[in-house]
């Protein structure tokens, strides 16, 4: 059976795997142009097509740019320039490089002449827009150190080019404000202040000026001034991430007390620049900068361990050993110390000591690639022992092994050793290249294939990793490493149903491994199967107790399952301990969303975006929680008709404008046509077939706290026969707890079910209570009860109960089953154009199927098969309903909902049980534009 499934998996994977080695998923990386370049044919670096060398070279530049490997992108640009000159393709990619490395002025200098030649080129327009909107850093507020540590571009160069841009064009606002922001991120507050004044004198105190002035005060610790400036901006744009970041930073970084070193609040620029130098491989510079940081602040723990790491990578082992002893004495033997101690032993040839330290650390954190690299190096690196010639650095060792392998050319093991060494040295790209060379010589080697799959996963080459593990799984279905690797690769690729199956079978075979349980729970939650995800976590707790990893996973999963109280309790416990944990902050955002705390939610969302900006997961969260708080306008068109010849056509134009996350304005205007044949008796009483009804409503809503939101609308309706009505609608939305909510609804309007009812001036006063109860996760009980009074002295009592349970949740569809019971009756049976039985009863089985085409497109189909009866029926008769909806653009600016429904009701009245069925049809289209 396993082999049969493996064969099926292989066939299903052909669309992915056919080109796995030529498309290494670089477009899935964090680069902002990934969506654009996904439409450009990708050419691998390994292609031998000499007739398209330029195209290959450009594709290689794009690959490195999108992967964030700016050093190699810059190198490839230089190679292209030397070989082909500065043609338009080169200039485009050079501009892209400058934009992505936040050298906006340089990017704009290159883009402007290109746009004059190609004004409609979308890529050029996108580069220009990105450069204009990302002048010096990502949007979030950061300290100079954090920003410098995360950007590979030189801020000093950016300042120089912004200054040149302003000199060249004094009206260039983007360059002027970019200069301010870059100076702030560098910590050059006096220069930034002068640039702000120059901007103010030239362009006035616009929002950009006010934003950077607030940032200036926040970074200087003047919280009161920063908050005074940023609050009015937040009132205009409450979801603006930059504003929220500045507010949050100002609120949590008060001005230090007299004599207190501000470096305790902000990481030093030297420390952050050292991290940048480490990323570029400039270890001498990193050592100098870390030492400068420690001179300023001897208690800088990050600088102390960073200095040790830089010395180890440079090969200064005696100095590193001294630094380790100093760190231990001052900060203790924490995990950072033990990691660098193990690295020291590995690099100095003391393998047994290295393994003795690193193996327990790996048991605590089995997926930590740094620890795994140290272990691999200790086990495999060819290094000189103590007392011999100097011990080579990791990159030197890797380079030497690569040269040896390339010289011999026929020994795959040499290439494999070089791949391992490059991996340990942190050069995953060369590690990937070396393992591919090894596999060319020994294509079926299991050890090599496993290593390739692991490196591809680290490089985020999702398709390569998946197909490599799939190949291994087909050959070795009982290999636990391969089995788990395929489960993880399938999940990363988005094959969630397959991943869930693989995790379930793996845990069945190897139940004593803790990590796969947590991963399996996440996979189930991503499928939308929250009940199963919580069950897996409960099983984990029974097997392994409550670890920190378990608590983080539980906080996130129960939050997405709409159980915010439990989630927030865990979050409040863990946040002081691991404040920068991505999953915990993600959980906090979702929990606050479901707990009706939008202001706090947007603040938490800003933190999530700061921790992992631009990732697909973060963007998905932004779309999910922001969409309900986006101002919008909509146009809705409705048409229905039935076998009684009643036709209703209605058009509505409405909208919602958010004043803040807790307050909004509402309004709509409508025009409606109601008609029926004269023979039906449902036409206007004055004669003719139809009349029109017009309406206008205005109002708003306000959330007082997580438990109460009030909403009200007032307006009027006017019929074409001269009849008018004052209308209103008031709602009180009450959240009792995570499982119970109420909606108390009061409404007055024309009872517009037929032209006759409207022409008689029948108005309805509705008093309604709706109850939403979730007794368990993905179990629902909805109750609707109401009492209505009518202007023709009639009254109506109504009760509807719909219990349902979601029985199937997969990656692509959800299935919910339930029953529906409805009872209502009128006090009088009048001939006023509406159905008013004394005692109506309806019962049905309901099936609701949602099919997900993508995150932004879905289809819903509902079937209700039931029976009905009123006091005039001699027996129960069928009552069947069929409906379909299409949701297009669920989280996008333009949102379209199309729906159609058909209802059939059997009739058996008095002595005429063979009356033909009543049928009604309805169609609706709603188009919304969000802002």
Automatic annotation (TrEMBL):
Protein name: Beta-barrel assembly-enhancing protease
SMART domains registered for this protein in UniProt: TPR
UniProtKB keywords: Hydrolase, Protease, Signal, TPR repeat
Coiled-coil regions, chain positions: none
Keyword Hydrolase set for record: yes
TPR repeats: 412-445
Pfam families tied to this protein: TPR_19
Gene: bepA
GO molecular function annotation: peptidase activity
GO terms classed as biological process: proteolysis
InterPro entries linked: TPR-like_helical_dom_sf, TPR_rpt
Gene3D superfamilies: Tetratricopeptide repeat domain
UniProt signal peptide: 1-20
């Amino acid at each position: 059976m396993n082999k049969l499934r493996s064969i099926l998996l292989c066939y299903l994977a052909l669309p992915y795997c056919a080109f796995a080695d030529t498309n290494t998923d670089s477009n899935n990386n964090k680069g902002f142009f990934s969506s654009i370049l996904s439409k450009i044919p990708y050419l691998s670096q390994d292609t031998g097509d000499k007739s398209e060398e330029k195209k290959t070279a450009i594709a290689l530049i794009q690959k490195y740019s999108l992967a964030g490997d700016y050093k190699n992108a810059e190198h490839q640009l230089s190679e292209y320039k030397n070989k082909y000159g500065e043609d338009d393709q080169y200039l485009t990619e050079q501009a892209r490089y400058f934009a992505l490395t936040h050298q906006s002025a340089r990017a704009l200098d290159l883009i402007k002449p290109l746009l004059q030649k190609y004004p409609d080129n979308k890529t050029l327009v996108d580069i220009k827009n990105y450069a204009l909107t990302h002048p010096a850093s990502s949007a979030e507020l950061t300290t100079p150190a954090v920003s410098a540590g995360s950007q590979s571009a030189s801020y000093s160069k950016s300042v120089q080019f912004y200054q040149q841009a302003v000199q060249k064009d004094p009206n260039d606002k983007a360059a002027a404000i970019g200069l301010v922001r870059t100076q702030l991120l560098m910590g050059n507050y006096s220069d930034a202040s002068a640039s702000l004044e120059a901007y103010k004198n030239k362009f006035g105190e616009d929002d950009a000026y006010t934003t950077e002035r607030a940032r200036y005060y926040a970074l200087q610790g003047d919280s009161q001034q920063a908050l005074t400036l940023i609050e009015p901006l937040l009132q205009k744009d409450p979801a603006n991430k930059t504003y929220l970041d500045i507010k949050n930073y100002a609120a949590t970084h008060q001005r230090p007390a007299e004599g207190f070193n501000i470096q305790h609040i902000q990481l030093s620029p030297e420390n952050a620049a050292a991290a940048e130098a480490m990323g570029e491989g400039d270890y001498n510079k990193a050592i100098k900068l870390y030492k400068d940081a420690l001179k300023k602040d001897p208690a800088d723990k990050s600088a102390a361990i960073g200095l040790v790491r830089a010395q180890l990578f440079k090969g200064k082992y005696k100095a590193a050993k001294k630094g380790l002893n100093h760190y231990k004495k001052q900060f203790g033997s924490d995990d950072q110390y033990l990691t660098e101690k193990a690295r020291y032993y590995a690099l100095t040839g003391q393998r047994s000591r290295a393994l003795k330290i690193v193996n327990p650390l790996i048991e605590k954190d089995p997926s930590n690639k740094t620890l795994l690299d140290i272990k691999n190096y200790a086990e495999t690196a060819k290094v000189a022992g103590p007392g011999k010639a100097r011990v080579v650095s990791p990159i030197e060792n890797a380079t030497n092994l690569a040269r040896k392998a390339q010289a011999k050319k026929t020994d795959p093991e040499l290439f494999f050793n070089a791949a391992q060494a490059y991996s340990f040295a942190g050069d995953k790209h060369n590690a990937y290249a070396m393992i591919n060379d090894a596999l060319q010589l020994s294509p079926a080697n299991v050890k090599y294939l496993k290593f390739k799959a692991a490196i591809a996963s680290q490089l985020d080459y999702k398709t390569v990793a998946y197909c490599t593990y799939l190949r291994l799984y087909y050959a070795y279905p009982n290999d636990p490493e391969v089995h788990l690797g395929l489960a993880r690769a399938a999940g990363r690729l988005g094959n969630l149903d397959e991943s869930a199956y693989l995790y379930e079978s793996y845990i069945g075979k190897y139940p004593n491994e803790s990590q796969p349980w947590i991963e399996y729970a996440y996979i189930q939650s991503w499928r939308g199967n929250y009940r199963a995800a919580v069950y897996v976590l409960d099983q984990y707790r029974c097997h392994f107790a409550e670890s920190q990893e378990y608590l983080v996973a539980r906080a996130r999963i129960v939050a997405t399952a709409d159980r915010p109280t439990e989630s927030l309790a865990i979050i409040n416990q863990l946040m002081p301990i691991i404040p920068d944990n991505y999953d915990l902050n993600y959980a906090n955002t979702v929990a606050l969303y479901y707990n009706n705390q939008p202001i706090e939610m947007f603040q938490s969302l800003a933190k999530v975006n700061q921790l992992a900006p631009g990732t697909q997961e973060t963007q998905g969260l932004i779309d999910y929680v922001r969409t309900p708080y986006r101002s919008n306008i909509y146009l809705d068109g409705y048409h229905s008709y039935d076998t009684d010849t009643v036709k209703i056509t209605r058009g509505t134009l409405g909208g919602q404008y958010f004043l803040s996350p807790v307050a909004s304005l509402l309004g709509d205007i409508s025009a409606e046509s109601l008609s029926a044949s004269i023979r039906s008796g449902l036409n206007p009483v004055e004669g003719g077939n139809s009349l029109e009804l017009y309406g206008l409503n205005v109002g708003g809503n306000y959330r007082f706290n997580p438990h109460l939101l009030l909403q009200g609308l007032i307006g009027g309706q006017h019929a074409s026969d001269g009849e008018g009505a004052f209308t209103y609608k008031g709602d009180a939305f009450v959240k009792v707890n995570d499982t119970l909510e109420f909606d108390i609804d009061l409404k007055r309007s024309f009872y517009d079910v037929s032209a006759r009812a409207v022409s008689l001036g029948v108005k309805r006063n509705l008093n309604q209570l709706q109850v939403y109860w979730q007794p368990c996760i993905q179990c629902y009980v909805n109750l609707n009860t109401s009492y209505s009074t009518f202007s023709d002295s009639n009254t109506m009592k109504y009760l509807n109960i719909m219990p349902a349970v979601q029985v199937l949740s997969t990656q692509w569809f959800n299935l919910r089953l339930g029953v529906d019971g409805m009872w209502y009756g009128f006090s009088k049976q009048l001939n006023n154009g509406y159905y008013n039985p004394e005692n109506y009863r309806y019962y049905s089985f309901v099936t609701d199927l949602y099919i997900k085409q993508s995150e932004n497109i879905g289809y819903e189909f509902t079937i209700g098969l039931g029976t009905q009866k009123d006091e005039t029926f001699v027996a129960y008769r069928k009552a069947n309903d069929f409906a379909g909806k299409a949701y297009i653009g669920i989280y996008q600016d333009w949102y379209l909902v199309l729906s159609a429904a058909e209802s059939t009701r059997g009739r058996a009245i008095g002595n005429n049980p063979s009356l033909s069925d009543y049928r009604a049809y309805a169609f609706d289209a709603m188009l919304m534009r969000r802002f």
